[in-house]
Amino acid sequence: MDHLFAVMADPSFSLWERVALGAVLIIAVLGLFYAAFLAAEVLGKDQGTEAMRKVSRAIRMGANAYLNRQFRAIAMLILIITALLYFTAGEQHIAIGRACAFLMGSIFSATVGFIGMNMAVQGNVRVAAASRTSFAEALKIAYRTGTITGMLTDGLGLLGGTLIFMVYGEQAYEVLLGFGFGGTLLALFMRVGGGIFTKAADVGADLVGKLEKSIPEDDPRNAATIADNVGDNVGDCAGMAADIFESYEVTIVAAMILGWASFGHKGVIFPLLVRAVGVVSSIIGTYLVK
Fold first, then answer.
1. Which of 185, 210, 208 is nearest to 70 (CA)?
2. What's the farthest any 2 CA atoms get from each other in the chain?
C-alpha cells in the first residue's frame, strides 16, 4: 500500500507538476459534465411527428436488444481475463491494479459505445424534425449529438490514464497495460460484431425489398428497413464509438509508457496535458460550428 498515490508524495515531482496533474483530472471530469450538458440539450429538442417517433422507438428498441445480448455474451470472457490478469501479476497491489484497470477499460469502452449509440438514435429523429424548418438547427443538433460521444471518449480516457498514474507512479506502466487491453477487447467485439450485423441486415433488407418486392431502399413499407437502421446504429455508432475510445485510450497508454522510458515523469505529464488542452479546445470549438 506504500506505493499507492506515490506521485503525490514523491519529492521529485514539483508543485507545478502536481498542479498540472490535478488540472488534467479536473478537465477530464469537465469533459464528462459537458457531455451530460449536451445530452440534456439534445434531448430537449422536438422529436417531430408521431410517425417519426414510432420509427425512432423501434430502432432504439432493436439496437438496445442487440447490445444487451452482446454484453451478456462478452461478460463471462471479461471476468475470466480479469482473473488471469490478477493471478499472473507479481506483487499483489500491481495484480489488483491491473485487474481493476482492465475492468475499468472494458466498462469505459462499453459505456462510450452504449451511450454514443443511444444518443445517435435520439439525435437522428430530432435532426430530421429540425430539418423541416431549419438546416442550420439540424446541423447544430447533429454536431452536438456527435460531440457527446467525443467528450465521453476524451473524458473517460483521460480520467482513467491520469488516475492510474497518480495512484501508481513509476509502476503505472504495468497497470496501464490492463487499461488499454480492456478497452481494446470490448472495441474488437463491438466493432466486428456490429459490422457483421450491419452488413447482414443491409443485404437482407435490400434483397427482400428491392429484388423481391420492388420496394425502394429504406422504404418504411419494408419491415427489414428497421433491422437495417438498427445495424447502422450498432455498427456505425456503437462500434465506431468504442473503436474511437480504444484508439484514444491506447495512444494515451503508449505515450505515457514511452514518455516515462525516455524522459521520466515529465514525459508522462506532457501527453496528458496535450490531451487536456484538446478537451478544452473541443468545448470551445463546439460553439464555433454554425
1. 185
2. 74
